[in-house]
């Protein structure tokens, strides 16, 4: 990706992800090739779907869907590896806990030792549309640690920049369904304008509910074609490390 005659090229040099049914890029690629269905019933350990299910649409506090996209081990997080205390880790939005290792893996996938970026003009651009974790808990327990952990979404980008000591732009973007696309565009622009030497556009959550989630298990989700008729909510985390270099 680059501009004709600009004297600068942009390349995606590393990737990592967590998607429903895929713990990495290779898993996700295999799912695409096999047209795999990664949507399934709500796991019992998440919540009791019977308490929130309704056969009738538009019932307040209810959903017609019994299915969704779910990540495997969403709370698995090696807090000591990133120098984070157990208490702070519990108060962190799972999106932050997922992003840290995914960003680290993307850099390793690119052959970049993360510590070598410390102090550099590396930018972080995050697309995040929700912060559902913040609605849990007792208001009496709210303090600065919890606010930065789950209430202030801007901290998601800052968490990455702080953990890796990155000195470039640290930006969180929320444009609903297009959040990740706008984050990628902003990262690209930052590289083209010379504001960052590396850029990590990451998507921390998907959010798309144009109306009612699909109520039927076999027509709940489809690839973006004319047969798709509804949306299904599910979390995703992906990161691509991108760099710019003079054209040869």
Average pLDDT, all residues: 80
Write down the domain tally. Answer: 1
Oligomer: single chain
Proportion of residues in helical segments: 25-40%
Which outline best applies?
globular
In total, the number of strands is 7
CATH superfamily: Thiolase/Chalcone synthase
Query: So how many helices?
Result: 6
Percent in strands: 15-25%
Radius of gyration: 19 Å
Q: Stretches where pLDDT falls below 50 for ≥5 residues?
A: 1-5, 205-212, 218-222
Element pattern in H and E: EHEEHHEHHEHEE
- Please state the second-level CATH architecture: 3-Layer(aba) Sandwich
Strand order of the largest sheet: 1-7-6-4-5
Kindly name the structural category.
alpha/beta
* Main CATH class: Alpha Beta
């Amino acid at each position: 990706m680059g501009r004709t005659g600009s004297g600068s090229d942009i390349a995606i040099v590393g990737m990592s992800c967590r998607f429903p049914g895929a713990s990495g890029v290779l898993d996700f690629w295999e799912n695409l090739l096999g047209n795999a269905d990664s949507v399934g019933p709500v796991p019992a350990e998440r919540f009791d779907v019977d308490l929130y299910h309704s056969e009738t649409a538009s019932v307040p506090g209810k959903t017609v869907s019994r299915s969704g996209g779910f990540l495997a081990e969403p709370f698995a997080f090696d807090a000591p590896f990133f120098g984070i205390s157990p208490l702070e880790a519990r108060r962190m939005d799972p999106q932050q806990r997922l992003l840290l290792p995914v960003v680290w893996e993307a850099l390793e996938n690119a052959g970049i030792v993360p510590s070598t970026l410390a102090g550099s003009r590396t930018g972080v651009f995050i697309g995040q549309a929700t912060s559902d974790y913040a609605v849990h808990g007792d208001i009496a327990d709210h303090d600065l640690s919890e606010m930065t952990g789950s209430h202030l979404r801007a901290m998601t980008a800052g968490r990455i920049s702080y953990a890796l000591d990155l000195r470039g732009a640290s930006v969180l973007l929320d444009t609903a369904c297009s959040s990740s696309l706008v984050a990628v565009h902003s990262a690209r622009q930052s590289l083209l304008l010379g504001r960052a030497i590396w850029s990590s556009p990451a998507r921390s959550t998907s959010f798309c509910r144009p109306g009612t989630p699909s109520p039927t298990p076999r027509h709940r989700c489809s690839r973006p074609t004319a047969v798709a008729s509804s949306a299904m909510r599910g979390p995703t985390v992906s990161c691509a490390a991108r760099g710019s270099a003079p054209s040869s």
